[in-house]
Write a structure and sequence with these properties.
Mean pLDDT of chain B: 88
Oligomer: heterodimer
Number of helices of chain B: 13
CATH class of the largest domain in chain A: Alpha Beta
Radius of gyration of chain B: 21 Å
Strand content of chain A: 25-35%
Shape of chain A: globular
Number of strands of chain A: 24
CATH superfamily of the largest domain in chain A: P-loop containing nucleotide triphosphate hydrolases
Number of helices of chain A: 18
Distance between the termini of chain B: 28 Å
Strand content of chain B: under 5%
CATH architecture of the largest domain in chain A: 3-Layer(aba) Sandwich
Distance between the termini of chain A: 42 Å
Shape of chain B: globular
Chain lengths: 520, 331
């Protein structure tokens, strides 16, 4: 284990001199103080966890290390020398690599070309010597577990393989620090395990890994030390010995965590709102059937890639099914587009809130209004927007959802992830659709906001809405849902409710079929 | 690694805020500075009510076509057909009046409807056949130029243009205000109201801001984009008609140069008061800057080549300011 060689388990003090020392970093954007006072040390060869609620300042600190933002105050030392990370090129030259949630690669290029993106390449007679590069890269690619041939196109590679390409690039660059932001957010359990093996291997060879995640079990499992940010400050630094999940959560939240209250289940109506029969869109969705009742929260669990988002898109009219039928409140329902689905009484909170949920440059008010425009106009002859109605709608929604914003006119892009998500949900509150679909409603959302969003979903169901919740986190569904369907490889493989509904049952069902390799 | 010293450029938040304010007000400051300089250099000819009315009158045609283009760019598309379309409209409206002896109002209505149809075609090609809007509208515009030459056989329609048609552009029917200015104020006022004060306008802005999010919020994105092209096409028709009236003739490629002017105005406008976002009021300011610039060059008898240099330079400056505003807003 690497931790014993780097950290004295008795004292918890570093025994190697740190690679990077950041002291008292502060940074403001406009009026918002993103970082107030952050200090962090990174030792050679350690896996250093970084946790904190959304808006705690993790991303800003990473952007400062990456040279994308510049601190207003504080100092950064690398190998004991005070430096100024001017831009991304400087950060790369200092031995730092950054791998983000949203990975970018060039689709038309090969694996090798993508690995070498932005890396200086040897040339012969002015031409890039690809065969020499391939010889050099091959062992590194093998080490990080890239199985695709280097000359294969990256088209169709999975997110996991994309991560490996990025790690490989970092190693080719001889990076001494690799920063990973939510690496497992879109990886399956087995892919995550593979990634952890690679991270441990990197750590043994002296590469520092800064591991940013909301998944505390991974942090506890993987990291030698953990820094906790809260509200723009670095509040705690733990070494692994004796660290528990409870301790971490308390540090993140900043106060004693309330006991989770099991939601009170209202008597569920038997009235079917949405009936889905044998709906398909091959190869991702295969003959799925279920009934969604008034006042019910129905969960859809399963692994990433099981076809859950694709199913939601079919119901919402974003894609067309190639088989099957649906009824909504007893009438045939075949939406040609999302706008038709919305008119019929559906609402969607999409998976990617920044890319698909929000107009980031526009205000909170603007974004809340998008699904309610008919109710915001007044005037008989010319339907003009009423600022009064808009303000009333926005103030009410902001209050009802406790959205933390400087005001309804603040650009929504400046809010933290959890508050952005509340805006996307809030859009539908006033419209009161019969069916609301939420795709990964708490992904990348801090613990506090997550609890609030769950409470809100229950309230919506109690008010008579039929709610469909898609989640990749098995922990999330049992408390939240009345029933859970587990999907695997495009089919519903299990329905769980009552005593049968538990985290373990969901996980078991997700894997059962993939082990057999044959969908039911 | 530590021996690498980097002397990076570092902007303090104050500097950044200052730069942001500068970017937002630079165009308006530029406008006033230009007026001030011209007034000082030519106190007799430039700062007179007559000259200012003249500038606004001249600029009105560009403002109308640029106002329409603003709608197309707000929904996230480019419309390169407007200049060519306006030329064709000028020929057709004169032809309908001179050759077909149609009453002037009927001819005007037909041509505006034709403008809407061209917009519809552009919108259809872009949204349904999914051709990039630059290519689609460039193609359509070129075809329209072909039609213009075919319709006029390459010869300007000059003879027999009735005085009443000339009065459309030259008249001062309302309180002695030139008609062009009245039409421009009505059109830009309507466009501003549409974009800023109606629910349809919110949908238009949402489609331009994030089409995927707008779609999933239940907005019919294709419909909104087509609407943007239709408005752009109708405004091009209005400009084409007024230009033909002012020139007293229908001439192929008479209005082609409005394309560049309109783009410069729209981009200057996006850097005005907002961070690189297109809006109608900004387009008005942008077109005013360009108009005063040309007016100044004229008054001081600058050679013809300098007008091209001014036109090209202002386009680059406009797009530069626009993207500066955007990048400051994002950082």
């Amino acid at each position: 284990m690497t931790d014993t060689t780097i950290i004295s388990p008795m004292t918890g003090t570093p025994t190697a001199s740190p690679f990077i020392v950041a002291r008292h970093i502060a940074k403001a954007f406009g009026g918002a103080q993103a970082l107030k006072d952050v200090s962090i040390d990174l030792l050679p060869g350690e896996v250093h966890g970084l946790v904190g609620a959304n808006g705690a300042g993790k991303s800003t600190m990473i952007r400062i290390l990456a040279g994308l933002n510049h601190p207003d105050a504080g100092s950064i030392e690398i190998d004991g020398q005070t430096t100024n990370v001017a831009n991304a090129q400087a950060a790369a030259a200092m031995g730092m690599s950054f791998i983000h949630q949203e990975l970018a690669f060039v689709p038309g290029m090969t694996v090798l070309q993508n690995i070498m993106l932005g890396v200086p390449k040897p040339s012969r007679l002015g031409l890039t010597d690809w065969s020499a590069i391939a010889r050099e890269v091959a062992p590194i690619a093998k080490r990080v577990g890239i199985t695709a041939p280097l000359n294969a196109s990256v088209k169709g590679l999975s997110t996991a393989e994309n991560w490996l390409i990025n790690i490989c690039r970092a190693l080719v660059r001889k990076s001494r620090l690799i920063v990973m932001d939510e690496p497992t957010a879109s990886l399956s359990a087995s892919e995550s395990e593979k990634l952890f093996t690679i991270i441990r291997d990197l750590s043994r060879s002296g590469v520092t890994v800064l591991y940013v995640s909301h998944r505390l079990d991974e942090i506890l499992d993987l990291c030698d030390r953990v820094s906790v940010f809260r509200d723009g400050r670095s509040v705690d630094e733990f070494s692994r010995a004796g660290l528990t999940r409870q301790k971490l959560v308390e540090s993140i939240v900043g106060k004693g965590l309330d006991e989770t209250v099991k939601p009170v289940r209202a008597e569920m109506s038997r009235e079917v709102v949405l009936d889905v029969a044998d709906i398909s869109r091959l190869p991702r969705v295969k003959s799925v059937s279920f009934a969604l009742h008034r006042g019910e929260v129905l969960g859809i669990g399963g692994l990433v890639g099981a076809g859950r988002t694709e199913l939601a898109r079919l119901i919402y009219g974003a894609d067309r099914p190639d088989g099957g039928s649906m009824t909504l409140s007893g009438k045939a329902f075949r939406p040609k587009s999302p706008s038709a689905a919305v008119k019929a009484g559906l609402g969607l909170v999409p998976e990617e809130r920044r890319a698909e949920g929000l107009v980031l440059s526009k205000s909170v008010l603007f974004n809340l209004g998008l699904a309610n425009l008919d109710s915001l106009v007044s005037g008989k002859f010319v339907p003009l927007l009423s600022r009064k109605r808009q303000a009333h709608m926005a103030t009410e929604t902001i209050k009802a959802l406790a959205i933390k914003t400087q005001g309804m006119d603040q650009p929504v892009g400046r809010l933290s992830g959890g508050n952005q998500q509340k805006v996307v949900i809030g859009r539908w509150l006033r419209r009161e659709p019969d069916v609301l679909i939420l795709d990964e409603p708490t992904r990348g959302v801090d613990i506090g906001a997550r609890g609030e969003i769950h409470k809100l979903i229950r309230q919506l169901a109690q008010s008579g809405m039929a709610v469909l919740v898609i989640s990749s986190e098995p922990d999330e569904l049992p408390d939240l849902c009345d029933r859970v369907l587990v999907m695997a490889e495009g089919s519903v493989v299990r329905e769980l409710s009552g005593d049968k509904l538990s985290r373990n049952a969901i996980v078991e069902a997700s894997y059962e079929v993939t082990k057999q390799g044959v969908p039911a | 690694m530590s021996d690498i010293s980097v002397s990076g450029r570092r902007l303090t938040p104050q500097m950044k805020a200052g730069l942001g304010i500068f970017a937002r007000y630079a165009t308006i400051l530029g406008l006033f500075a230009m007026i001030l300089v011209f007034s000082l250099l030519s106190p007799k000819a430039f700062p007179t009510l007559g000259n200012f009315t003249n500038v606004l009158n001249q600029a009105s045609l560009a403002m109308i076509i640029a106002g329409g283009l603003t709608l197309a760019v707000i929904v996230g598309e480019l419309d390169l057909s407007i200049g060519f379309a306006a030329s064709l409209h000028g020929i057709i409206v004169t032809g309908l009046i001179v050759h077909d002896k149609l009453p002037i109002p009927v001819a005007v209505v037909i041509v505006v409807a034709l403008g809407a149809l061209i917009g519809l075609v552009n919108g259809f090609i872009v949204t349904k056949i999914k051709v990039n809007s630059v290519i689609a509208t460039l193609g359509v515009g070129t075809i329209l130029t072909g039609f213009a030459f075919a319709y006029s056989s390459g010869v300007p329609i000059v003879a027999g243009v009735p005085e009443a048609f000339l009065q459309l552009s030259l008249g001062r029917w309302l309180f002695g205000i030139p008609n062009n200015i009245v039409v421009m104020v009505v059109v830009l006022g309507a466009l501003w109201t549409l974009v800023e004060r109606t629910s349809l306008g919110q949908e238009i802005q949402a489609v331009g801001g994030n089409a995927a999010a707008a779609r999933l919020a239940g907005i019919d994105v294709d419909r909104i984009k087509i609407l943007g092209f239709v408005v752009s096409g109708m405004c091009a028709a209005l400009t084409g008609i007024l230009l033909a009236s002012r020139l007293g003739s229908g001439t192929a490629s008479a209005a082609d140069s409005y394309l560049l002017t309109a783009f410069a105005a729209v981009f200057l406008g996006s850097a005005t008061l907002r961070d690189g976002e297109f809006h109608v009021l900004g387009t008005f300011v942008g077109a005013l800057i360009i108009a005063f610039g040309f007016n100044g060059l004229n008054i001081f008898g600058a050679p013809t080549f300098s007008q091209y240099v001014f036109q090209g330079a202002i386009l680059i400056v406009a797009v530069g300011l626009s993207s500066l505003g955007r990048s400051l807003a994002e950082s």
